[in-house]
Amino acid sequence: MTGRVVLQWLMTTHVVLLRGINLGKTNRVPMARLRQVLTDAGCTRVRTLIASGNVVLDHPGKPDAVSALVHDAIADEWGLDIPALTRTAASLRKVLAHNPIDGADQDPKHYAVTFLSTPAPAATLEPLGLDADPSPFPGEHAVLTRGELYTWTPEGIHKSRLLRALGRLPALHGTARNWDTVRRLADLAEEGD
Length: 193
Known about the structure:
Elements: H1 2-10, E1 12-18, H2 31-40, E2 44-49, E3 54-59, H3 63-78, E4 84-88, H4 89-98, E5 111-116, E6 141-144, E7 148-152, H5 161-167, E8 174-178, H6 179-190
């Protein structure tokens, strides 16, 4: 019994964001089976949120090691090459606390965070002219931190000229979640702490 208590004490709660799964019939990964596969791979308290690739789990490894473990487990089980980005529960809370776009969280479906696979310098957004007056993207906003890109698209992602422009910037590789999902993931990560 003591070994189990010590092991749980060494665990870190991680939030794993999978990119591009369960999009229609593409890259199908059933969440119940994923939870079992990750448990078998040595993770504990594995839980998922919606079927779009949001996993909260406990593991003693660093985020990069957890990303590799999840990527490899999915490749072994389903033969899919699915990028996995991992943040600790503590870093996810910081993402929520940062919230650099005033008032955007009032409409969380149009406010999103792109979690970047590698940090991007602040100058990455300069080619878009976001500080120009008038703005080339009226009503839309983007704020880049080193590891996340916050975006506000009041007309929705499908009509967003800003998101199309951002997608052409090679330094911004990652996966996005709307603000509501980020909040729900943070809540899920805190359960049982």
